Amino acid sequence: MRKPASIVGRDLEWRVLERFLKAGDDDSLKIGIVSGRRRAGKTHLLAAAAETVGGLYHVCVQEEGDLSARARFAAAIGAHGGVTGVATADWESLLTSALEVAARTAPADRAPLLVIDEFPYAMAKAPQLPGLLQLLYDRARRGEGPGGRVILCGSSLSVMRELLAGTKPLRGRAVVDLKIGPLDYRQSAELWGIGDAETNLKVHACVGGYPGYRPLIDAAPQSPDEFERWVPDTLLSKGLGVFTTAEVDYLLREDPRISDRSAYYDVLGAIARGSTTLAKIGTETGRSKDAVRPLLATLESSGYVARRTDLVRGRSSIGVCDPIIRFDRLITAPRLGQLGLGRAEQVWKAMRDTFRSQILGPHFEELAREWVHRFAPEELDRPDGFGEVGTANVHDQAGRAKYEVDVLGLQGKSVAFIGEAKANGQRQGVGALSRLQVIRTALGDLGYRTGETVLGVFSLNGFTPELRAAAREGEAVLLDLDRLYGKG
User: Fold this and answer.
1) Which helix (H) or strand (E) holds 402?
2) Which helix (H) or strand (E) holds 160?
3) What strands lie across the sheet with 148-154, from one edge to the other?
């Protein structure tokens, strides 16, 4: 089962599907759950898997009536199996027919496959579907019904998560629970086909690693100058599919728990602007902590915001982790009136400084942490990795100073990595190395082991000759954009 060349990345996910679809001694019914936010590439992945093994792939439609949904499913079953007159009386008979037809088209070395994409849309009108799948599962276990593999997929993370919760019918019956996240930043560069590292960084800071945005854009920018034209022509252009406010509105609509979207917009905007605690979010939005708490819980479970824990002090802060939401709340939303008049270029000119300071800089730090976590073990010949990677605030007890650590890797009480990441338009110099050495000493004073700590300096604008000389002596690892993207 070879992964198609059109799928960038997803090697781990493909291996999981390949194992799930392999025929074996036990070919009774097995169920898999695949979830991920809109534009993550779930459909492309599952449609390719179904095509590879001759499976039946069916996608549900939002706000479709139950009768129409059953008729469309019956038509898909008939078309796949080359049969007519598939009964549409009830979902139980439809599911049984789908499994039987899939069994007739499956190759000998693969189990029959039925994929139901956007399953929550069908559940909205037919909430009995999980119970019916449980019934078919139990029958197959007793040898009284068709076996095979069923994959249920959906973009509503809360609905998909609820399928396996508590006493729900499918609890304990799913052997695969695959969550499809964004591509990493190097895979995103491959997806977009951008050769310039700086342009890759900027595009990734805007839309992240979600493959679904690529087909919506005719041409990707290939240079920083083209990026300057690309933003107003795409992300800030009302009427296009990637206009960020329309896209964020669509993302929030995917979660049935989000009814009052204005409240969620307020919270997302406050977080994007730097309110990183419950109290600060409440103050900025004019809401009590009790009113903000459930909004945050929903946004966290949907994957739009995340808590980041200070690895030294243990305190957590909240940040927007979806790039297009962050871009929208900081760049697009404040100027919607102007954008409605077609003044995208003027808006982008006015908001460039905000992009550089509040989006590009923090995003560069995020990529630095991702490099340490994902790529540094191999590229620095540390096969055991660098432990838990995150950020921290470190207090120098002697000097009464506090240092914000952009990148910290901890293996228990051993400091594996300390890094500084700057995208401030200046070359990094020996001052950055001195600061890292002070932080290393401060961590040692706090009881951490620092004998094998790697010091890393990340820079968007290069390094001074003095810092390069220090790096050649082994005092630090220097990481510019080319090296972050695996070109250096």
Assistant:
1) strand 401-411
2) helix 157-162
3) 56-59, 113-117, 148-154, 29-35, 174-179
Which residue reads 């996608």 in tokens? 59
Q: What CA–CA distances, in Å, run from 27 to 77, 150, 170, 305?
A: 21, 12, 18, 40
Q: Is residue 412 part of a domain?
A: yes
Q: Is residue 216 part of a domain?
A: yes
Residues 29 and 126 in one domain: yes
All residue ranges of the chain with pLDDT < 70 are 25, 398-399, 488
Residue 225 sits in the same domain as residue 168: no
Nearest-angstrom CA–CA distance, 321 and 366: 10
pTM greater than 0.85 (yes/no): yes
Tokens representing residue 84 in the block = 């007519």
* Distance from the first to the final alpha carbon of the chain: 34
Q: Answer for the pair 477, 421: CB distance below 8 angstroms, yes or no.
A: no
Q: How far apart are CA 238 and CA 336, in angstroms?
A: 9
pLDDT tens-place string over residues 214-264: 999 988 999 999 999 999 999 999 988 899 999 999 999 988 889 889 999
Token pair, residue 210, equals: 């979600």
The conformation of residue 215, written as its DSSP 8-state character, comes to: G
Domain total of the chain: 3
Q: With b meaning 16 or more CB within 10 Å and e meaning fewer, what string describes 161-190? A: bebbeeeebbeebbebebbbebbbbbbbbe
- Strand-pairing partners, residue 67, are none
